[in-house]
Input
Amino acid sequence: MAGLTTSEWWGLLPEGIRGEVDGYVLQDRRLQAARIVWETCRGRGLGLHEAEGVVHERYLHHGDRIARTPLSPLDLESLAARASGCPGPVVAIEAIWDGDTVHDWFVILLAVSTGPAGRYELATIHRETAVRHLGDVRAEEARRPEATAAEAAGRALAEHLAVPFHFASPDAPDDGAPRRRS
Output
């Protein structure tokens, strides 16, 4: 059965499975949808890459009906409002890399607070968020638009709050980069 098109693989799925996959797609849960397609058809020769292709076609089919996860705001006013909600004084703004199989690499912008000590998430910056914030042209020029957007927004917020900004690895994804010491 190798060599089938995504439409042919879709047609091989039972109606109940197709409904389940479309349910996950409409909830913007790409990984769960691909897992169902792959688990159902892998015995027939469907690879994970092909399962992702089937799900991609369902995303194209449903288009604007998909309940997309909202993008984090990166404007100074929104970030400052979020930082003001921290339970203690903000002593720094930090950007760190993270990643998963759905979004690839992304940057999390954090407020570092004391009393109680902790890190509080202000924004998650995926590529799509970065492109929206930077604009298409500037995002295309950036090697890692996620890092460029995080650095710009984080520095602006840190300056606004008169606290230091820390981003240990702005040039390359590294979820093990040194963190700011509190």
Q: What stands out?
A: Residues 110 and 121 are 5 Å apart (CA to CA).
